[in-house]
Structures are given as structure tokens and as C-alpha cells.
Amino acid sequence: MSNRKNVLRARRVIGAVGIFLALPFFVWLPLGMLESVPSMVDVFGVIGLRIPASTTVAGLLIAAIAFWET
User: Fold this and answer.
1) For the chain, how many structural domains are there in total?
2) Which of 16, 46, 58, 70 is the most exposed place for a label (fewest CB within 10 A)?
């Protein structure tokens, strides 16, 4: 039983890391639209938008895998 608790705790930590990885870019998008912060296009350029997009997708995939119930 202790091993299962450790696995669940590790999965929660990994899921939280995935969410925190995606969160800054997820919040930056609407703030950039409201012109509260510089737009992602201004900072990264059109070609460079792959960086925050791939980071956000990777973080959400990590969180989805970690929080997936088996």
C-alpha cells in the first residue's frame, strides 16, 4: 500500500510540474491581447512562437499523463 501512495504522490508532483511549465505562457496570451505585457509575437517573433507553444503543449501533455487514472 505504501508503494501505491508513493506512486500517486510522484504522479501529482509530475502533474503539478507540467501545469507550472504551461502556466506562464497560458497566462501571457490573454495578458498580451489586453496589452498589459508585450505580445508573444513582439518578444519571440512569428517564427519563434514555436518555443512558447511547444513548451505549453509539452507541459499540458506531461500533466495529462500524470493525472490520467489507470
Assistant:
1) 1
2) 70
For 27-45, the pLDDT digits (tens) are 998 998 899 999 888 899 9
CA 68 to chain centre: 16
Q: Are 40 and 49 in contact (CB under 8 A)?
A: yes
H or E segment to which residue 27 belongs: helix 2-33
For residue 49, the enclosing domain spans 2-67
Cα 18 from Cα 65, distance rounded (Å): 9
Helix (H) or strand (E) holding 68: none
Entry pTM: 0.79
